[in-house]
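Key idea: predict the complex, not the pieces.
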Amino acid sequence: MVRAKIRVELKDGVLDPQGVTIKNALVDMGYPEIASVKSGKTFDLEIDLDDRELVETKLDEMCRKLLANPVIEQYSVEVYE
Amino acid sequence: MKFGVITFPGSNCDYDTYAAAKFSLGEDVEFLWHADSDLKGTDVVILPGGFSYGDYLRTGSIARFSPIMKEVIRFARDGGTVWGICNGFQILLEAGLLPGAMLRNKNLKFICKYVHIRVETTNTILSSALTRGDVIKIPIAHSDGNYYVDKKRLDGIIERDEVLFRYCSSEGELTDDANPNGSLHNIAGICNRERNVFGMMPHPERCTEDILGSSDGLKLFASVRQHFSERMTA
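Result:
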């Protein structure tokens, strides 16, 4: 059994209206030091496999097929015990 | 001719679309079920609006893997007419049958109101009975209708005359104010290269009779019918 954390976020250069709104709210709340905010999603997975390399290959495939939309999103995968 | 309307779990415009085709237009319609693999011999497959799978993950991202979608993709590749409205458009984008993706509306709000769109091309089944430059009054109802595609693809879409409709003022001006959701190029609807797959965020099925506030939506259904009746007599 291995675990993985997947983060999906909008690609750089794609407008992130949620991130912009959160950033503006933080600045208004008295945190003018906030220069930017990027929104995103994380997925925590438990995988019934021990072969790390196979897990990484499969997760990459899952990201491309379903978890991220490659037109607008980028993703990163972190596999751990 | 026969329309088919797919019901996905969470579709909520399927009956309106059925009624528009059946009663406002007066043509045959069949409901198609997401878990089936049968398009029942329909000439035009419509993916209606709604919130398929609760909009979980991304709009349309789960519905795109429904069993019926395998048939829709095959049907589209064989030249069949496929028409996605609102959530149906989002599903077609996720399925890769149309280019681009939807971002959250620029103002982060669910927008439900009448808008105006301008007919940009009449070189499609959906718009052949219209006139280029016509302004149509039609409602939108969505949170994720902010159309995005990279610059290169956008240029290609424009160049190949694949933009169906653009948000505009009541006079047909393409201003930022008239763009409700932040869509690139004010895009409200597009077609694919082969011009047989259509996607649009506004809801023509909600404006097919004057009592509903506008009957402009019926013109699109009538345009589709005209194509198929001409084909049958040809």
